[in-house]
Amino acid sequence: MSWTKKILRVNLTEGTCAEEPLNMEWAEKYIGQRGLATKYLVEETDPKVDPLSPENKMIMATGPLTGTTAATGGRYSVITKGPLTGAIACSNSGGFFGAELKNAGWDMIILEGKSPKPVYLSIENDKAQLVDAGDLWGKSVWDTEDLIKEARGDSNIRVAAIGKAGENLALFAGIINDKDRAAGRSGVGAVMGSKNLKAVAVRGTLGVSVADPMKFLAAANAGKKVLAENAVTGEGLPTYGTQVLMNVINEVGALPSHNGGAVQFDGASKIGGEAMHEERATDGKKNLVSNHACFGCPISCGRVSQLDRTHFTVEGTDKYSEPSGGLEYEAAWALGAATDVDDLEALTYVNFLCNEEGMDPISLGSTIAAAMELYEAGKITDAETGGLALKFGSAEALVKAAQMTAAGEGIGKDIGLGSKRLCEKYGSPDASMSVKGQEFPAYDPRGIQGMGLTYATSNRGACHLRSYTVASEILGIPEKTDPLTTDGKAGLVKAFQDATAVYDSAGICIFTSFAWTLDDVTPQIDADLEGEWTSDRLLEAGERIWNLERQYNIAAGFTGKDDTLPKRILKDAAKTGPAEGKTSGLDVMLPEYYQLRGWNADGVPSSETLSRLGV
Questions:
Q1: What is the average per-residue pLDDT within 169-175?
Q2: Is the dihedral of CA 414, 416, 419, 424 positive or negative?
Q3: 550-584, pLDDT tens digit by residue?
Q4: Is-above-0.90 flag for pTM?
Q5: Alpha helices, DSSP H only, in 58-157?
Q6: Residue 22 and residue 7 in contact, taking contact as beta carbons nearer than 8 Å
Q7: Taking 70 as the threshold, does the pLDDT of residue 316 lie above it?
């Protein structure tokens, strides 16, 4: 089976690496990756711990399908208490790092304590050691990966690292693997930086076994066939990546722009997937060079882009001269529509910078947008910006602010706090478009009602990947629902949340759910693992995981009052588009959601619910 049944526990304070057996009772209940690592975090840490203290733990975890031939079986997650939110954090990443970790023989790495000096963790199959990283501290993610591979003399090593943002404890710093894949949200990179851990470098050659190889091969191949024949996973995502959504979401009136002040953006067509395919007038080249895939992925939604060498962000320098990870929808929206910047090259440059220095582009762009609003309102002045005119629509201001944030300099230090703390500092808390301290993504809850409930109830703060009701409300998957009504959305959100917890815990990409249902996933897990695994068993596990995360947050101090949305989403109606005149109907959806969850009116799981799920 592809649980390796081994954990690597790394005590950074003491400088030790030790092998431990996986708790199989927990694995049977929580599957792996997100669910299982959350169980370990809950059992081993105080929910009230300071996220940036040595007492907080950080877990890098794979799922049972990670490293197998299952489509998209390359995922891993980073689970910790998030410094951006103070809530449970689980940040999921693709690329090749997760598969390499599983092939090295580990289900997860538990990182605890704090190293007295910068180090990186080196893993080669069953051998693990902490290596001095004094020469790497201050280096970018990209340079760190290159230097580790050079020092080890092995170009096949997979590296997950932080850049200067993580070192400087920017609260939305991410962990970057394979140079452009990110465990990006909630500040997991800041936790890594707080522990003086620069990188984790893995080489695994042991392979991965499954319980029933022939049965698994048949199930995996059947799943790949479904993905290939689906319009989204077989055509749309390979061609345009997630950027296929930019113009679609703008047309339905759900593209937040001007820091949530509007639901449509006039410049959307200049920064979307189609624009990335167009030849530039300046050099005859396209922004998009090619697509690329993560480990075992037939969808290949990743983008590889090149910058215009005549553009102001790169002219006269060798910076970013090579093609690299291109814009995805969320990044293009946050850096573009949220700030009113329609300069595709500037957005690409900042996206490269986020990959190079380890920043979440969603939180970065949204926080810069909030800073622009505060600047234009006179709350932030030239004294704070050093003379930088932080105006909406200014590509130059976006680029400079991003550079300052990566470096932890000037106004960039305040931007690195995230929009909630930034706006509180400058006396305008309502200008933060966040939930539980995390900036919400590229779907306006006034135009897509289910996403409002999704953001409000997400355990890691505002997030689209915990319940992607856009699939149903906009794309008609698995069935079409009206995005402008609140009817049935409580049940829809709960179903998506529980199912997504399964995908995240299994070790596969949530994008497969555009084509797959749990009935496609179940045969693969059943052939992979010992015992009998049914769709009902998996769905119950997903519900168990959701409630465990909820219990952690309650113990950390969150209440039902935190299940809310920014005031402007609840009070200020959309001014244009199909949602014109509408606000979020969260007040209607939330009580029904609590009831369906088996929680009381304050959002606390009942003893009956917890007993039924064994939480």
A1: 98
A2: negative
A3: 999 999 999 999 999 999 999 999 999 999 999 99
A4: yes
A5: 97-103, 141-152
A6: yes
A7: no
Give residue 562's pLDDT.
98
Pair 428, 454 in one domain: no
Residues 427 and 285 in one domain: yes
Same domain, 311 and 427: yes
In a domain, residue 44? The reply is yes
Residue pair 520/593 in contact by the 8 Å Cβ criterion: no
The model's pLDDT over 320-354, given as tens digits with 9 standing for 90+, comes to 888 999 999 999 999 999 999 999 999 999 999 99
Residue 338 and residue 388 in one domain: yes
Residue type, 306: Q
Residue burial 63-94, b: 16+ Cβ < 10 Å; e: rest:
bbbbbbbbbbbbbbbbbbbbbbbbbbbbbbbb
Q: Are residues 423 and 555 in the same domain?
A: no
Average pLDDT of span 202-220: 97
Q: How many structural domains compose the chain?
A: 3
Q: Of 432, 461, 495, which closes a domain? A: 432
Interacting residues of 158 by C-beta distance below 8 A, sequence separation 6+: 95, 96, 97, 100, 101, 177, 178, 201, 202, 203
pLDDT at 317 over 90: no
CATH number for position 79:
3.60.9.10
SS3 517: coil
Q: 459 lies in a domain?
A: yes
